[in-house]
């Protein structure tokens, strides 16, 4: 069923004449007849009694008339709303985040952007990395946070900072206060919090795998995501391996570099040819924010 069928039906129902309905719609009479016939075939009922001298609605036609007009009203309203939204001056910027740390990192940048672009409307999406890639490709978001190694292949990647591979633990954990750790150190700890490896850089996967290997199941807690990991770490239940967060890390969480691993390139991806003044300013402010929040050992790119 389509709006052309409904418009033809409504016109014939109003005029009770195929010729006048065709004139009103500015199409040919055979075209109107064809639309009515296909609509009747789809519904499985006759909507009009037709003779050589007159046309009138059947009982089913009277019943369908109410719904057809309501559907046409909704169709016109939706078109009007869409056209209105295209005319509006609101600037939308879709930003894809994979976890709560990335959302938290956005707050100071969005405060600045609100002052610089009063009409800006940020559209924030918190979904797994694989879903973000689809949203970026479809244009539902304009930029997403990612590591270089796992960045979408058909998008432009821009580095914002270098993040070390670290162990995170609670402030009362035996590892707290250490200046550095090794995989061998981590293999002797207590409960280890592991998170899904989907779309994680290979150094993190390799480090996590080495810690888990040979460990009994009662010393591993498999978590659904980084939020669960941090909850166990903050409450002192477990420790984990992750990429070094900025200084927005909860105050009761210690971040200790892991020896033998090079820093990871971290930044954003966006589609080629889609940079707007809003997106360019966002990238600039994001780099500046990460620079101000980066830990002493972090390296931030602001180019």
Short description:
This protein has helices at residues 3-15, 18-25, 29-43, 59-87, 100-116, 129-138, 183-186, 202-212, 226-234, 277-293; strands at residues 48-50, 55-57, 91-97, 120-126, 143-147, 156-163, 165-170, 192-194, 220-222, 240-243, 253-257, 264-270, 299-300.
Distinctive features:
303 residues; alpha/beta; six-stranded mixed beta sheet; three-stranded antiparallel beta sheet; 13 strands; disordered C terminus
Structure notes:
This protein is α/β, with parallel strands linked by helices and 303 residues long. A hairpin with a 4-residue loop joins strand 1 and strand 2. The two termini are 54 Å apart. It has helices spanning 3-15, 18-25, 29-43, 59-87, 100-116, 129-138, 183-186, 202-212, 226-234, 277-293, and strands at 48-50, 55-57, 91-97, 120-126, 143-147, 156-163, 165-170, 192-194, 220-222, 240-243, 253-257, 264-270, 299-300. It is elongated, with a radius of gyration of 30 Å. The protein is built from 10 helices and 13 strands. The strands form 4 sheets. Strands 4-3-5-12-6-13 form a 6-stranded mixed β-sheet, sandwiched between helices. A 3-stranded antiparallel β-sheet has the order 10-7-11. The longest helix has 29 residues, at 59-87. The chain is 44% helix and 21% strand.
Describe how the helices and strands are arranged.
Blueprint: H1 3-15, H2 18-25, H3 29-43, E1 48-50, E2 55-57, H4 59-87, E3 91-97, H5 100-116, E4 120-126, H6 129-138, E5 143-147, E6 156-163, E7 165-170, H7 183-186, E8 192-194, H8 202-212, E9 220-222, H9 226-234, E10 240-243, E11 253-257, E12 264-270, H10 277-293, E13 299-300
Parallel strand pairs: 3-4, 3-5, 8-9
Antiparallel strand pairs: 1-2, 5-12, 6-12, 6-13, 7-10, 7-11
Helix pairs in contact: 1-2, 1-3, 1-4, 2-3, 5-10
């Amino acid at each position: 069923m389509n709006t052309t069928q409904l418009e033809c039906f409504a016109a014939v129902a109003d005029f009770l004449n195929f010729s006048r309905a065709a004139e009103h719609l500015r199409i040919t009479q055979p075209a109107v007849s064809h639309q009515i016939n296909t609509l009747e075939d789809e519904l499985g009922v006759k909507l009009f009694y037709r003779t050589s001298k007159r046309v009138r609605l059947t009982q089913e036609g009277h019943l369908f008339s109410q719904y057809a007009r309501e559907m046409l009203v909704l169709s016109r309203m939706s078109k009007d709303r869409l056209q209105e939204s295209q005319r509006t001056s609101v600037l939308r910027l879709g930003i894809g985040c994979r976890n709560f740390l990335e959302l938290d990192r956005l707050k100071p940048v969005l405060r600045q952007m609100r002052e610089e672009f009063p009409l800006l409307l940020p559209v924030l999406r918190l979904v797994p990395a694989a879903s973000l890639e689809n949203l970026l490709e479809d244009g539902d978001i304009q930029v997403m946070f990612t590591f270089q190694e796992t960045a979408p292949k058909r998008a432009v990647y821009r580095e914002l900072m270098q993040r070390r591979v670290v162990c995170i633990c609670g402030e009362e954990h035996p590892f707290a206060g250490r200046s550095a750790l090794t995989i061998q150190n981590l293999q002797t700890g207590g409960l280890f919090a592991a998170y899904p490896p989907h779309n994680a850089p290979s150094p993190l996967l390799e480090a996590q795998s080495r810690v888990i290997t040979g460990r009994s199941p009662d010393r591993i807690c498999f978590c659904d995501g980084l939020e669960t990991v941090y909850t166990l770490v903050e409450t002192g239940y477990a420790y984990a391996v992750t990429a070094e967060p900025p200084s927005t890390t909860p105050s009761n969480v210690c971040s200790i570099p892991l020896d033998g691993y090079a820093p990871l390139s971290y930044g954003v991806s966006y589609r080629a040819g889609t940079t707007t003044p809003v997106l360019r300013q966002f990238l600039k402010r994001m780099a500046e924010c990460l620079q101000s929040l980066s830990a002493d050992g972090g390296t931030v790119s602001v180019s």
